[in-house]
Amino acid sequence: MTRLSAVGPEAADTLAAVHWQAFTPGWSAAELTELLDSPGVFALLAQAEEPCGMILCRAVAGEAEILTLAVAPPARRQDLARDLDAAAAGLARQAKAAEMFLEVATDNIAALRLYEQAGFQRAGLRRGYYDRGDGVRTDAVVMRLDLNTAGPAAYPKAD
């Protein structure tokens, strides 16, 4: 059974370890600590026997943003990303956010599918947003979720 829990800067090393399993390069504990010390930033950590997923978000001035979502390769295809995303949307609603944004690489088909199934809509394109190294850059799709409208069951409307 996977457990989701809200964490702060004290968990930066664990969050960084999960992020590095999912991305190359991953974010460092120092980068995560700096973000977590910023206004409106929150993180959720997913743990089974070991930490296996994380999401980092910011909710300020009525808007929320998913800064990163990472699932360790052995924990993929188990709806963990969906669960992290849904929990983060709930926390963003509690923080009075009306909408949630994110960027996702155009070649990350699984993530695009996840967010579209969750009710996110394509809102724009950022050309050359991701640096893949060796001069290779990849575009990002900007996606938006209205947190105030009825959507998929993963996002029940707040009371």
Write the layout of secondary structure elements.
Layout: E1 3-7, H1 12-22, H2 29-36, E2 41-47, E3 51-60, E4 63-71, H3 80-94, E5 99-105, H4 109-117, E6 121-133, E7 136-146
Parallel strand pairs: 4-5
Antiparallel strand pairs: 1-2, 2-3, 3-4, 5-7, 6-7
EC number: 2.3.1.-
GO molecular function: acyltransferase activity
Domain N-acetyltransferase: 2-148
Helix coverage percent of residues? 25-40%
| CATH classification class | Alpha Beta
Please summarize the sheet with the most strands. 7 strands, mixed
Radius of gyration from the CA trace? 15 Å
Continuous helix count:
4
- Beta-strand percentage? 35-45%
Number-wise, the strands total 7
The strand line-up of the biggest sheet is 1-2-3-4-5-7-6
Structural class by sheet pairing and helices:
alpha+beta
- CATH homologous superfamily heading: Gcn5-related N-acetyltransferase (GNAT)
List SSEs in N-to-C order: EHHEEEHEHEE
Low-confidence stretches: 150-159
CATH topology label:
Aminopeptidase
CATH architecture: 3-Layer(aba) Sandwich
User: How many domains, as an integer?
Assistant: 1
What does this structure look like?
With 159 residues, the protein is an alpha+beta fold. The protein has one domain (3-146): Gcn5-related N-acetyltransferase (GNAT) (Aminopeptidase). The chain is built from 4 helices and 7 strands, in the order βααβββαβαββ. Strands 1-2-3-4-5-7-6 form a 7-stranded mixed β-sheet. Helix 1 packs across helix 2 (29-36). Mean pLDDT is 91; it is low at 150-159.
